[in-house]
Write a structure and sequence with these properties.
0% of the residues lie in helices and 44% in strands. The protein is mainly beta. The protein has a domain of 186 residues: 5 Propeller (Tachylectin-2, Chain A). Its EC number is 3.2.1.99. Keywords: Glycosidase, Hydrolase. Pfam families: Glyco_hydro_43.
Amino acid sequence: YKGAVLPDGTNIKLWDGKMDAWAPDVHLVGDTYYLYYSAVRDVAFDGHNLAAIGVATSTTMDIGSWKDLGSTGIQSNDSSEFNAIDPDLFVEDGRNYMIFGSYEEGLYQAAMNNPPTSVVPDSYAKLAYEPAGSHADEGANMFKYGDYNYLFYSNGVCCGFDTKKPAAGEEYKIKVCRSKSGVMDFRDSDGKLCTEGGGTIVLESHDNVYGPGGQGVYDDPTYGPIIYYHYVDTTIGYADGQKQFGWNKLDFSSGWPVTTAADTTAQPATTQTTQKN
């Protein structure tokens, strides 16, 4: 641990009490690093939906170099369809998009200005929605491979497995839908729309791996496309503080991402995703 990006917290204020900042996502655009974060009231998920996606910038990522620019303009309240948390910047052909959302009415995309510090008004579009149960989709990120944009996201219960273990199959898992580049038509491998509950499983509980999620995907210069995530190792323990960090290579030869068993590593996880109760 070297220090906090926002040692004094966020300057976003959506109510009179304290705001927490978490779920960071960092991207290098040009010569500037943009760190997006979720700003929520410190009693988040108590029946209220006050949240905003904030951004801080730095040219070095050194401790003390970050400048908090506050809200991007993507905000939610009790009457919003979406939950303004879990940001992920996606850049395609010089255009900036913010992928975000957790529970509520699903996962969304919004166009961002250039530089990507503020949202383009009235540019919101729904990408995915789980109509069943508590609508447990969150933590999405977009990855371009070939002619398709792949929407990876976590589905199910993420946390607190040591105190309340969900029914089998309801724990965290990683799903994906895809759409042709430039077309908002995300479907799973069976052709079902992602906005109607579609989603192909990429990684789920198996062997001693339980509840994988909170994923990210990027093109590694050595291994090619990889997916990284946190999970519970059932031989270690189910508490949030015992979660591990894992990664796998992804094989897109079929047109859909498939994890390989090789090159998986495990280390104590340093970040966790929070679910809506």
